Amino acid sequence: MGFVVAFVAAWFALFIFYGMNKRLSIVENAFVFLASMALGIHLSWFIVEEFKWIEMTKDGLSYAGVLLYRIVLFPMVFVLVMNAVYKLRGIAGQLLSGVTALASLAVLNMAFVAYDMIRYTKWNLFYETLVTALLLLIVYVLLRGFRKAADKRWAA
């Protein structure tokens, strides 16, 4: 059942992205997707494989759901948030979009724990949310730097 949750959530995020009025260009969306995917995969590798703070399931289909979450859904949520942040003018709306994304990812992590896809050993949902918020901030700073570099490149 965990795979179904991850699959439906990934398709839902892709559907929202397809239907939304995007503020970022294709290149910027690809940059956010790839940066968040690379950072998320590397961080989860450290947490799961090196530090053994989270145990993954041994069931193949459930593990495929976790991989679908880390490779597709997690970066797509970052892309949706960055589009919303650059679309909204006020700081309150930007923070609300970030908090909504964090809450959505926290609910998905709770579902994964409920379906025994992951088991927290020396980790918990608060740490996961804190690390995700830090990753959101890092990707935001990287995107700002990317946009400034692209503006300087095309202005010259």
TrEMBL record:
The keyword Transmembrane helix applies. Keywords: Membrane, Transmembrane, Transmembrane helix. The chain crosses the membrane at residues 29-48, 60-85, 91-113, 125-143. The keyword Transmembrane helix applies. It comes from the Bacteria. This is Uncharacterized protein.
